[in-house]
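Archive maintenance. Older records in this collection stored only the sequence; we are now back-filling the structure field for every entry so that each record is complete. The fields below show one back-filled record exactly as it appears after the update. Entries are processed alphabetically, and Putative glutamate--cysteine ligase 2 is next in the queue.

ARCHIVE ENTRY
Title: Putative glutamate--cysteine ligase 2
Organism field: Streptomyces echinoruber
Length field: 362
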Amino acid sequence: MRTVGVEEELLLVDPESGEPKALSAAVLAHASLEDPEQDVFEKELYRQMVEFATHPQADMAALGAEIARCRKEAARHAGDIGCAVAALASSPLPVSPSVAMNRRYQWMEQQYGIATREQMVLGCHVHVAVESDEEGVAVVDRIRPWLPVLTAISANSPFWQGRDSGYASYRSRVWGRWPSAGPTELFGSPERYHRRVADMVATGVILDEAMVYFDARLSPRYPTVELRVADVCLNADTAVLVATLARGLVETAAREWRAGAEPADHSVSLLRLAAWQAARCGITGELLHPTTMRRMPADRVLHGLLDHVADALADHGDLEHAREAMAALLRDGNGARVQRELLEETGSLRDVVAECVRRTQR
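Back-filled structure field:
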């Protein structure tokens, strides 16, 4: 059974005002002081955020338990220095991002200018184990059209600098400012994949292989395919659903490859349109169906994803839980819908943040 690991970025906020707080160094120092051997929490590009990474898990219930535990630990460390954590993919309240003092991050600020200084967004990256680079590239080629559906499910960034952005996942639109971000053409072989990455690094526009921000890529550090399209999810249950579907997609793609099935030859232009539609609408309205690239009600596309990976989910014992989680998501809404409903109820973005702080640990 393939293992799955999740990386989540959490926003540090003032517990009273809801405004982002640039205290990541203090939070990480507190965590290291309490446990010098801890390898869970890491700093990120911006001082208003902190990241954690789970261990690889074969059982999705165990993965969910670890996500919940890491969120609670992050909240405890943050609380001890006077701030709180919120699983928000963008700050609802205005923020002036503060780039961390790190040679790599300072290079990025100098290289990319205002794009670095403005685009503080928070994502969820899912790592799914693969047996080889050959299998990994075959998977990357075959999951491309389904990745926007994961963006729609996870969408949790409707507000930007104190205003409604008009998008369910504005994070994904902001993330696209990086020069290496977005969908990819078909690679066909590990050799072509690695040649493309090497050529990109050789331009000098990006610093190294780790700065290749494909929507799905071979991880530079682990024997995994890394899916990078999801917002950090407000509820941990949604993060588990995204991870479950990600493993289902990887396993299904690997089976298709072994059976000799060719990947869908959608152009990058169409994939960008599908990603835009997913960012705009989330799970409300219409999405582009991954097989036809034509509009279809979002709930039908989500169920289409479940059907596509059903055999793999069933073999992993995940199918029934995934169906229940998808039904709950469509009934209760994702983070974007919840945030907008909270604003409508309270009239206050500060209250939206406060409730999201509470839900982050639920």
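Update note: The chain has one domain: 4-360. DSSP finds 14 helices and eleven strands in the chain.
Entry marked complete.
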